Amino acid sequence: MKKLIHILPALALVLLFSYSCSQGGKVTRTDTPTSGIGEITVDECFAPIVQEQIDVFEALNRDAAIIPIYTNEAQAFGLFMDDSVRVIVAARDLTANERLIIKERKQTVRSQRYATDAIALIVNKANKDTLITVENIRKIMTGEIRSWKELNPKSPLGDIAVAFDSPNSSTVRYIKDSICGDKPLGDNLRARAADSTRTIDLKDRTPNQLVIDYVAADPNALGIIGVNWISNPSDPQNLSFIDKIAVMSVSKAQEATLENSFKPYPAYIALKEYALSRDLYIIITDVRGGLPSGFVNFAAGERGQRIVLKAGLYPAYQLTRVVRANPTLKD
User: Fold this and answer.
1) What are the residues facing 120 on neighbouring strands?
2) pLDDT in tens, 85-123
3) 20 to 30 A from 261, CA-CA: which of 166, 246, 269, 287?
4) What CATH number did the domain enclosing 49 receive?
């Protein structure tokens, strides 16, 4: 209610702006970098981290209201390229053709990398197989490996039930482009969560939350999910995940061992030890100094980057030193 009271003056300004346009008056924008109302579209894979940034930004700027549209990657870029919204948070940069379309609209685009994300592989807590190689991930995704016994003959589990959020998600695109290469996804893969063909309300169970719930309930499940969905928010060291599931360690070697396999912790993402990482971008076509520009500057600034680190991702602008410690030999 308090937030609504502070937003009402901004709404009045928007109505006044609309009235001026209808009367043919001179159009002037009513928002500032710290006040007004602005919409952004967000790949739902990154909803937790972006929502936290919005909450902090609005707490610091009581007259600002950021309205996020959470949806799958394909729909998010559709909204952005249709000029329905002018800020997007996504797991890829614009293509050359997309930049040309924006240029032809006489708009200036600013794109910047503001985090490095990781794709986490999650399994049921009853599953004791928590080490996996990139090559075996590829074979699972292409259907060459279909059961847990093919990974470990001693496994008591059956067929691998791969769980992902949506066929149109950036997570699935990453698996296709970066893991499978020129091989198609296997016919054994299914979107276990409901496909996101609409905008998402975080008060509901989102597709990524459905993936977590599915894995927590099925011992045969293998979930593919953005790491910010499973980071433990109460751990200031970013060295643990939520307790409902187990997180697999991934190895780039031919055989996975405890020594060469890594979990998606920010330090291992930074050191490039964790194999399944991707860059996260924030892109804007409204750079004239209004509220969208103010939020982008906050997200990419020091306070916004600290939220990135807290969410389990690695910030684009380094806030802490990453130190590789070697054991000291005793005499």
Assistant:
1) 225
2) 999 999 999 999 999 999 999 999 999 998 999 999 999
3) 166
4) 3.40.190.10
